[in-house]
Design goal:
CATH class of the largest domain: Alpha Beta
Structural class: alpha/beta
Helix content: 25-40%
Number of strands: 19
Shape: globular
Distance between the termini: 18 Å
Largest sheet: 7 strands, mixed
CATH architecture of the largest domain: 3-Layer(aba) Sandwich
Radius of gyration: 21 Å
Order of helices and strands: EHHEEHEHEHEEEHHHEHEEEEEEEEEE
Strand content: 25-35%
């Protein structure tokens, strides 16, 4: 199977326990990328991805919202999922079409029940995951304790690639542990770096020998094992931030491009895709959100619904950006788009052919 321009696309889901700051993080990502000009607020009911009346009234997400942004020439399809346990089925549907994930954990409340449920789903599907510790500026924020709870309750493979500078009202950002020389690190940053190096080294016999011999490893020695471990779903980079103030957002966006895999697929192969979300347009009818794994779909193509064994005609293919849409006319392997005309489509329907769906085990390490 050929790669579907893996370096130009990312399909990433954002997951979290309710009130961990997931929608606020998405809002700031869209603002930082230039997709929106004004920041909305969950509390005020003006967040871009929470536009249903019930979401604005209750201040929570009740269904997955698909949006996108471009950074450094890479298009990121971002799915903001509900955090409330009542909407777990919406989360599960989104999990299955993601190549990578961001799991948000509050630095105040730490790992919660819903966090563990989502984590289990991510691990069952072996989805490479970034853990983002949010709300470092809040009273009660405890970054090291939160990191320790992540390693204890979620995975010992959680590795800090940043060290926070201060906490609560003194939180001022982070030190990049893979860019700063070890000799320049001071105080608690040294402890984060030591945890990073030891965790990576203990998973590779040769690295461990080098670490024992030298007492440290260079960034150059760490980068490839880290990326390989992330792609194998054995290592999970941990970042820190305060999304409501925009602190940590640029670094999180960079981490998406640097550490999460792009899609596999062959645009010249037979069509193979799955419908993971449905909406209704008052003028255009049913909207089917399709993740295409192989092949190419165009406006006016007839596509086979494998699940129902029926043929339907595509009338339009649009890129949806929350409440705005653009008729692009084509959907290629590895990408996500809203497909119109599939009037009998159901969530979970396979279109094209039932073969050609890659698994995480087939991801090469594109280092």
């Amino acid at each position: 199977m050929r790669e579907a321009q893996w370096n130009q696309i990312r399909n990433v889901g954002i997951f979290a326990h309710v009130d961990a700051g997931k929608t606020t993080t998405t809002e700031h990502i869209l603002y930082e990328s230039g997709r929106i000009r004004t920041l909305g607020s969950v509390d005020d009911g003006t967040a871009q991805t929470d536009w249903l009346d019930v979401e604005r009234e209750r201040g929570i997400s009740v269904r997955a919202a698909v949006t996108r942004f471009v950074r450094d020439g890479v298009q990121v399809n971002l799915v903001d999922t509900p955090g409330h346990v009542d909407f777990l089925s919406e989360v599960e549907r989104s999990l299955r079409v993601m190549d990578g994930a961001i799991l948000i954990v509050s630095a105040v409340e730490g790992v919660q029940a819903q966090t563990e449920l989502i984590w289990q789903g991510l691990r069952d599907l072996r989805i490479p995951t970034i853990v983002y510790v949010n709300k470092l500026d809040r009273i009660g924020a405890a970054p090291m304790q939160t990191l320790q709870s992540i390693r204890r309750l979620l995975s010992g493979g959680a590795i800090p690639i940043q060290a926070p500078i201060g906490a609560e009202e003194d939180f001022a950002g982070c030190v990049d542990l893979l860019r700063e020389e070890t000799s320049t690190l001071r105080g608690e940053a040294e402890l984060y770096r030591q945890l990073l190096v030891e965790t990576v080294a203990e998973r590779d016999e040769e690295l461990l020998e080098r670490y024992i011999e030298k007492g440290d490893l260079t960034t150059a020695e760490l980068l490839l094992p880290i990326k390989q471990g992330i792609y194998r779903s054995e290592l999970f980079p941990v970042l820190f931030g305060a999304s409501n103030r925009g602190i940590g957002i640029p670094e999180l966006m960079e981490a998406i491009l640097r550490w999460l895999p792009g899609p596999l697929g062959d645009s010249a192969a037979p069509v193979a895709g799955i419908i993971f979300k449905l909406e209704r347009d008052p003028d255009m009818g049913r909207i089917a959100y399709v993740r295409l794994y192989n092949g190419t779909l165009r406006n006016r193509d007839t596509v086979h619904n494998v699940t129902q064994d029926i043929q339907e005609k595509v009338t339009q293919i649009r890129k949806i950006d929350v409440r705005k849409s653009e008729d692009v006319g084509i959907l290629q392997a590895g990408d996500i788009a809203a497909v119109y005309g599939l009037s009998r489509a159901r969530i979970g329907d396979i279109i094209g052919t039932a073969t050609g769906f890659p698994t995480s085990a087939s991801w090469p390490c594109r280092c």
